[in-house]
């Protein structure tokens, strides 16, 4: 594990952007694993700026997002599909057919889950996977107690995750109770992982991760067994 401690959110985003740029320069046909949330916004802004300056292209890149809410159509303003298009995809030269998120309105959710891991495998696996982390150590929507060998699956959202994410929903809007998430094993299958965490509220999770005690009660602990992972973290925000 490589740990990089930073002083500012901007520094974290810049170092992460350099890793993604290096990956795309080395392999313009890379398969990227992407994440939503507040943490990667700065990274995505930097990648958009590189594309706009004609220094970077996503035209042959394929992406797979970690998760999506169950029951939210793509055009819902709180869907992760919408977040990704607003934040990144609408501003870069990626092909729509190369973008993958779990389909939270699929008629058969379990078939959708197993198809998702198959789609990733069919693309040759994820070259570089971006991750955030929850204060409880969740990665994707893999909450404490999720088996380390889990593949993409449907989860019931915990009360704390629903409360944390309620800010992304319009007032009065019904918050989903379930989501589809890549499993911990699906994440671990990536060839390289970069985990970003910034702010005081994430520091306790960072301490736990550093302790390195493997336990399904702290899903991110499994990442300590990955042989190519960089953790960029810091700060009081
Ligand atoms: P955040 O979410 O980036 O909004 O803090 C990270 C996560 O819960 O995985």
UniProtKB/TrEMBL annotation:
Pathway info: Amino-sugar metabolism; N-acetylneuraminate degradation; D-fructose 6-phosphate from N-acetylneuraminate: step 5/5
Annotated catalytic residues: 67, 136, 138, 143
Domain Glucosamine/galactosamine-6-phosphate isomerase: 16-227
Keyword Cell membrane in annotation: no
Keyword Cell inner membrane among record annotations: no
Superkingdom in the source lineage: Bacteria
Key words, A-Z: Carbohydrate metabolism, Hydrolase
GO biological process, one term: N-acetylglucosamine catabolic process
E.C. no: 3.5.99.6
Role, per record: Catalyzes the reversible isomerization-deamination of glucosamine 6-phosphate (GlcN6P) to form fructose 6-phosphate (Fru6P) and ammonium ion.
Family to which the UniProt record says this protein belongs: Belongs to the glucosamine/galactosamine-6-phosphate isomerase family. NagB subfamily.
Protein name from the UniProt record: Glucosamine-6-phosphate deaminase
Lineage: Bacteria, Bacillati, Bacillota, Bacilli, Bacillales
Gene that encodes it: nagB
